[in-house]
Design goal:
Elements: H1 2-9, E1 17-21, H2 23-27, H3 31-40, E2 45-48, H4 51-59, E3 66-68, H5 77-83, E4 86-89, H6 92-101, E5 106-111, H7 126-133, E6 139-145, H8 152-172, E7 178-180, H9 184-189, E8 197-200, H10 202-205, E9 211-221, E10 226-227, E11 233-234, E12 239-244, E13 261-264, E14 267-270, E15 280-284, E16 293-300, E17 303-305, H11 307-314, H12 318-323
Parallel strand pairs: 1-2, 1-8, 2-3, 3-4, 4-5, 5-6, 6-7
Antiparallel strand pairs: 9-12, 9-16, 10-11, 12-15, 13-14, 13-16, 16-17
Helix pairs in contact: 5-6, 7-8
Function: Catalyzes the interconversion of L-alanine and D-alanine. May also act on other amino acids.
Catalytic activity: L-alanine = D-alanine
Binding site for substrate: 118, 277
Length: 335
């Protein structure tokens, strides 16, 4: 992770701040541990998606600024203030409620929707919205941001619209501290649009995770015998089958049934039969024994299984693969 952070820093201006995105438990890696590690690397602002995530980080002792990346229901305004989070704002009713809840003041970032069509303020309404915020003296507009839906030409179109928004905003708030539009994948594509901050998530986390288990049992089955639910795999000859302590409740998608592979003793073995809630099975050889380490994601003996490989096999993205590793899987952090 430190190497990934350093690689991004090499692409950024020395004045560009990094917001470490640790939502969804830092994409499944463990938000508090990741935030602490990134803090050691000089990251001093973090982004989350839910108030519960803010609460967990504060309870864990993280005091750095936390940007809540979306606007919750107005009834939670007081909780945002209590937790000392920076609020995202794009609706007048929420701004009013937040002002009432924060007599001592609170920092906010205004979200503009330049084409994602998910959340945010329409660009044409930005100037009027910012002028409307001027009556709330306790709301400090610290930032302005947008979210790109695509790279390439579509991303450039969004950035052009956002540039107009930035110009309009700075006529009203000349000392706007943070303007941000780029996430991990966009930094390399649009280096000219770094502004004051970039939001880094998946780009920090790729290649840092290994998902491992152990062999529970090894047995030989005969021709015509099936394994697991639905009998979707039937032996055509005597086969050694290893039962592995990992299943879909741990984050191993059932879509990998009869398709995925595991690493054992530096060799690759195919999964067989339906992946169960707590276990999966693989066709192995005589070198495999009970207690052997099994790599589900990661490297072993010159072989590697990446989250992207699993994503390709299950028609998804690597984000979903690592976010899907469940809470019951223990996390160990190695330097």
């Amino acid at each position: 992770m430190a190497a990934n952070l350093a690689a991004y820093r090499a692409q950024l201006s020395g004045q560009t701040a990094i917001l470490g995105v640790v939502k969804a438990d830092a994409y499944g890696l463990g938000a508090l541990a990741v935030a602490r590690k990134l803090s050691q690397g000089g990251v001093n602002y973090f982004g989350v998606a839910a108030l519960r995530e803010v609460e967990e980080l504060r309870q864990g002792g993280l005091t750095a600024p936390l940007l809540l990346l979306s606007q919750p229901d107005p009834q939670y305004a007081a909780k945002i203030v209590e937790l000392g989070a920076t609020a995202t704002v794009y609706e007048s009713a929420f701004a009013e409620q937040l002002s009432r809840a924060a007599p001592g003041g609170i920092k906010i970032h205004v979200k503009v929707d330049t084409g994602m069509n998910r959340i945010g303020l329409p660009p044409g309404e930005l100037a009027g919205f910012l002028r409307g915020l001027e009556k709330y003296k306790n709301l400090e507009v610290e930032g302005l941001f947008t979210h790109l839906a695509c790279l390439g030409a579509a991303g450039r179109k969004q950035l052009a619209e956002f540039a107009d928004c930035v110009s309009a905003a700075k006529k009203i708030i000349p000392n706007l501290k943070y303007v941000h539009a780029l996430s991990s994948l966009a930094v390399g594509e649009f280096p000219e649009a770094q502004y004051d901050m970039v939001r880094l998530g998946i780009g920090l986390y790729r290649g840092v995770l290994a998902l491992k288990s152990r062999v529970m049992l090894v047995k030989t089955i005969q021709p015509g015998e099936a394994v697991s639910y639905g009998a979707t795999f039937v032996a055509d000859k005597p086969l050694r089958i290893a039962t592995i302590s990992a299943g879909y409740a741990d984050g191993l998608s059932r879509l990998l049934s009869n398709r995925g592979r595991v690493l054992l003793n530096g060799r690759s073995y195919k999964l067989c039969g339906q992946i169960c809630m707590d276990m999966c099975l693989a066709v192995v050889d005589d070198t495999v024994a009970v207690g052997n380490e099994v790599v589900l994601i990661g490297a072993q003996g010159g072989q590697e299984i990446t989250a992207q490989e699993l994503a390709d096999l299950t028609d998804t993205i690597d984000y979903e693969i690592i976010c899907g590793i469940s809470k019951r899987v223990p996390r160990f952090y190695l330097e």
